[in-house]
Amino acid sequence: MEIKIQNLIKKYGKNTVLDIPELTIDSGELVGLVGNNGAGKTTLMRLMLDLIEATEGSIEMGGKCVSEDTSWKQVTGSFIDGRFLIDFYTPEEYFGFIARVYNIDERDFVNRLEQFLPLMHDEVLGTRKYLRQFSEGNRQKIGIIGAMLVNPKLLILDEPFNYLDPSSQITVARLIKEMNMLLGTTVIISSHNLNFVSEISTRILLLEKGKILKNLDNEDGLAEKELEDYFKAAE
Asked: Coil, strand or helix: which one is 81?
């Protein structure tokens, strides 16, 4: 899934929170978004998902404007925060709901869910708990699994390593990388964890105050040193 951004501006009142003149994300890229709080990472993701309206400019997915054509939704998986969950569902009901929405047949659904069992650690399925009763870490896992369950052409995850213990962070990073490599999924993730972003991303965008300051190729993790130097100098 190719993404093209042109003259994208988002303002709240007189405050400009995002200003991207031009950006192209090629199909099959794994792009990491990094930056301090308030840099515009989540705003950019919400605009991509048509959750908020741009003040100016456009975002195209597969050659079609996201605000005018909804076909991209059927091939997109995303998890921004807990509001994406259905709190009065159990995990089984939530995953089943996603399978129905994306027309995943029963056998395929079972096979897909099985690959995420190591991430769930016997703490999610079969618990008879509603999503609202789970810890933030397990809610995070459920949201990520729901987004990846659809085998999307585009995967958007905001801070996927938040609330997770170290072993789960490693597992999530591996699952994201495998989906990108095996399915050719275009992936966009944001994170404050430079190590994981540098480890799995093919390109990294550094945002500050709504602007892209650096657009870094990350072949062999070469962007990590430049990013570390930037953030040390900003301390």
From this structure: coil
| Strands 3-12, 154-158: pairing kind | unpaired
**What is this structure's pTM?**
0.95
- Give CA–CA dist 8/111, Å, rounded: 40
Report d(CA 19, CA 212) in Å as an integer. Answer: 8
**For 128-168, how does the pLDDT look when each residue is reduced to its tens digit (9 = 90+)?**
999 999 999 999 999 999 999 999 999 999 999 999 999 99
- Distance spanning both ends of the chain, measured CA to CA: 37
Q: How many CB atoms lie within 10 A of CB 215?
A: 12
- Per-residue pLDDT, 235: 64
Give yes or no for residue 220 having a pLDDT over 80: no
Which strands form 186-190's sheet, in the order they lie side by side? 76-79, 154-158, 186-190, 30-34, 203-208, 211-217
CB 141 within 8 A of CB 164: yes
Structure tokens at 108: 């395929």
Q: What is the mean pLDDT of residues 117-125?
A: 94
Query: In the predicted model, what is the mean pLDDT of residues 87-94?
Result: 97
Neighbouring C-alpha atoms within 13 Å toward the C-beta of 119: 28
Q: Which residues does residue 33 pair with via DSSP β-bridges, in sequence order?
A: 190, 205
Half-sphere exposure of 152 (CA within 13 A, CB side): 26
